[in-house]
Amino acid sequence: AAGISLRTQEMYAVVFAARYVDLLWNFSSLYNYVLKLLFIGASAAIVYFMRFGAPQKATYNAEEDTFPVQYLLAPCAVLGVLINQDHTSPFEMIWAFSIYLEAVAILPQLFLLQKQGEVENLTSHYVFALGSYRALYLLNWIYRYFTEDDYQQRIVWISGIVQTALYCDFFYHYYQSKKSGLNQSVKLPV
C-alpha cells in the first residue's frame, strides 16, 4: 500500500456504492448485476486490506495521506442535488453525486504523490492506468456522440473532462520519466 492513498480508495468505494445502489431494485441483466457487485466489493476489499490487512496496513503511510476529503464530498453532494438529470428522483441525485465525486476522487492520490516527490514505478503505472481509463472514456463519448442519435450526457462529459484534466500534470511527468527508460521512477515537483 506504499504510495497509495487510502482516502482516494475510500472515495472510489463511495462512488461505486452510490452509483450502483440501484442494484437493490433495478435488475437489467445478470452480467450488469454481477459487475456492479464486483465494483463495490473490490473497492470495499481494497479499503479493508489497506486499513486492516497485516502486510498492507504496515506499508500504508497515513501521515502523508492528509488530503481533506470533506472539501470534495460536500461540494459533490451539493452539485448532485442541484445539477442532475432528473430533479424529482433521489436516485438521480445520488448518481450525479457519484459522477462528480469520481471526477475529483484522484485528488488525494495526486496530493500524496506530490508530497512524496518521487513515485515508485508500480504506483506510477497504477495512476497512469487510472488516468488512461478516463481518457479512453472521452474517446468513447466522442465516438458515441457522432454515431448515436440524441447521445447527450453533459454531466458525465464535463466531469470526465475535469477528471482527465486533473491527470494532465501527472501524465506529463510520467511521460518525461518513461521516455528515457521504463525503470525510471516518476519525479514530481515538490
From TrEMBL:
The cross-references to Pfam families, in alphabetical order and at most eight, read: ER_lumen_recept
Q: Which residues form a coiled coil?
A: none
- Indicate the transmembrane segments per the record: 33-54, 66-83, 95-113, 125-143, 155-175
Q: Kindly list the biological process annotations in GO that this record carries.
A: protein retention in ER lumen; protein transport; vesicle-mediated transport
Single GO MF descriptor: ER retention sequence binding
Report the superkingdom from the record: Eukaryota
Q: Does the keyword Protein transport apply?
A: yes
Arranged from A to Z, the UniProt key words for this protein are: Endoplasmic reticulum, ER-Golgi transport, Membrane, Protein transport, Receptor, Transmembrane, Transmembrane helix, Transport
Q: How does it sit in the membrane?
A: Multi-pass membrane protein
Q: Where in the cell is it found?
A: Endoplasmic reticulum membrane
Q: Name one GO cellular component term.
A: endoplasmic reticulum membrane
User: Member of which family?
Assistant: Belongs to the ERD2 family.
Q: What is this protein called?
A: ER lumen protein-retaining receptor
